[in-house]
Write a structure and sequence with these properties.
The complex is a heterodimer.
Chain A (H helix, E strand, L loop, with lengths): L2 E5 L2 E3 L5 E8 L7 E7 L5 E7 L6 E3 L7 E6 L4 E6 L8 E11 L2 E7 L3 E5 L2
Parallel strand pairs in A: 2-11
Antiparallel strand pairs in A: 1-3, 3-8, 4-5, 4-9, 5-6, 7-8, 9-10, 9-11
Chain B lengths: L8 E4 L5 E6 L9 E5 L6 E4 L13 E6 L2 E6 L8 E8 L7 E3 L3 E5 L1
Parallel strand pairs in B: 1-9
Antiparallel strand pairs in B: 2-6, 3-4, 3-7, 5-6, 7-8, 7-9
Classes of the chains: A mainly beta, B mainly beta.
């Protein structure tokens, strides 16, 4: 059974940093690209970042580019999101998800339960 | 950037058919994926590549995509189908790789 378990969320002041983790199990982790998607309170889904199975390729939404860094440790089956220079508008539940599909056409088939990040003074 | 437009809400009586639309410029040329999200829960993939169903998703859920509109159809709606539904495309032509629609709240009357 595929399981994704996020952790690391919490309350942080504007300008601060936080690192989220996503522990994966039940599948061959290094074969899947992974992504982070966030959801502000009462709002819709917003894609944040994606990383290839090897970790060699990454991409980011414009809203977080230069402030967030996605990475993975395939030996630990864990995905990370380092979030720096946090802003109030980064307040959201952050979900990790597996990316599936092919031919530059992808979807997200397994999701974690999410971890809440609150940026406030 | 590419924009997906969904109606904010759709209401349907139990046992009837619900249709949730997702509009986009020539969306028929793209593959559309759909997610269901119940309150306090993570999204769940219900349709991928326009009309394919993941294992475990009831046959009552189906999808279509043509022209400027993709549609998620839920037949014989049940109370448990009440949720938010999001469409999604992968768009390499814009600066936003992944585009989600704004979401539709399905209310079962």
């Amino acid at each position: 059974e595929v399981q994704l378990l996020e952790s690391g969320g919490g309350l942080v002041q504007p300008g601060g940093s936080l690192r989220l983790s996503c522990a994966a199990s039940g599948f061959t982790f290094n074969r899947y690209a992974m992504t982070w998607v966030r959801q502000a309170p009462g709002k819709g889904l917003e894609w944040v970042s994606v990383i290839s199975g090897s970790g060699g390729t990454t991409d980011y939404a414009d809203s977080v580019k230069g402030r967030f860094t996605i990475s993975r440790d395939n030996s630990k089956n864990t995905l990370y999101l380092q979030m720096d220079t946090l802003r109030a508008e980064d307040t959201a539940v952050y979900y990790c998800a597996t990316r599936s599909g092919s031919n530059e056409d992808y979807y997200f088939n397994y999701w974690g339960q999410g971890t809440l990040v609150t940026v406030s003074s | 950037s590419y924009v997906l437009t969904q109606p904010p809400s759709v209401s349907v009586a139990p046992g009837k058919t619900a249709r949730i639309t997702c509009g986009g410029n020539n969306i028929g040329s793209k593959s559309v994926h759909w997610y269901q999200q119940k309150p306090g829960q993570a999204p769940v993939l219900v349709i991928y590549y326009d009309s394919d169903r993941p294992s475990g998703i009831p046959e009552r859920f189906s999808g279509s995509n043509s022209g400027n509109t993709a549609t998620l159809t839920i037949s014989r709606v049940e109370a448990g189908d009440e949720a938010d539904y999001y469409c999604q495309v992968w768009d390499t032509s814009s600066d936003h790789l992944v585009v989600f629609g704004g979401g539709t709240k399905l209310t079962v009357l």
